[in-house]
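Problem 12. The chain below contains 340 residues. Write out its predicted structure in token notation.
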Amino acid sequence: MNSIHATTTPDELMVEEPGTSSVNEPDETMDPPAYVYKSKLNEFLWTLPQPLIALSSMCAVAFAITSETMSPDALGGDADSLTAFLLFSPLFILLAAERIWAKKKAWLLNWKDYTEDAFWLFTAAYIWGPLISDYYRTPISDAFDWIRDNTFMPITLEAATIPGLIFCALVVQTTSEFIYYWIHRWSHRYMIAWRTHATHHHITKMSAMRSNRTHPTEFLALSFSTPIILALFGATTEVIAVSAALGFCNGWITHSNLPMRSGIWNWFFTSPEHHQLHHSHNFDDSNTNFGCGVIIWDRIFGTFSDSSHIEKCGSGKGEQLSLFEQYVLAFYPNEKLKQL
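Solution.
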């Protein structure tokens, strides 16, 4: 593993003259943002959608679990359809909202973008996710079972009430993101890890569904943190479902092209402002705010930035890559990867 010096990150190595590629050339994605806050009240109101959507999503799933009329036994074969609807409905709300209140008009997606994003979502949900799950089941799931059966944790994450399920889900998200934080931070530090993560940063527009633009090889790493935490705490399937609702919802919100502002909620959870900055073409900014759902670990370990200024997003040359290149870049030699 070749370490890259602290002053030279994989992002920096991908352009011939770091820091100059977007300075002298006008670009349609430059500030100011398309949305202008009309008043302090208007600005405050934009701090509310994220906690309201995230909490509503968790409460809806928790209610469906705890309500006898909406339990899997009562719903029969419709239970999976209900779960999918509850999990994915926030995404469609966010995509519709982007057409009305876009933070940057230059980030608005066209039909080609929507089609490509749908492809990434479909393959993640029906190909790579299930494949990784099967991979973990045999033989790695035996190790997780051993961890669960021999855990040193004095508590078990299980609950039968809506507040209890939400609390347990918050514990899962916070602790699993501690592992994810370091995996994510190292993927910006070392080329061997960056090659699996680079696909996610080679986007030139922010949008809710783009949180799913994850290279198949990166699922191996990103799918590791949560199972470890679930095994250590012996989390029940009900807790896992509510935790998934929060994880999916926060991921979509933080990637959205909406003018949401950071509020009290974002002292602990990542906001769109935080994560948009992480996707900045400016590589100093892109090496901050590594938490996708929880920002507290960035605050603790000194990688947090509260800047809301982003001129453009992307990596390397800042150009949109073809779908084929997004898939194969993980297998490029280092020098070719640096030139993208």
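Discussion. The CA atoms of residues 252 and 312 lie 19 Å apart. Students who got a different answer should revisit the alignment rule from Section 12.3.
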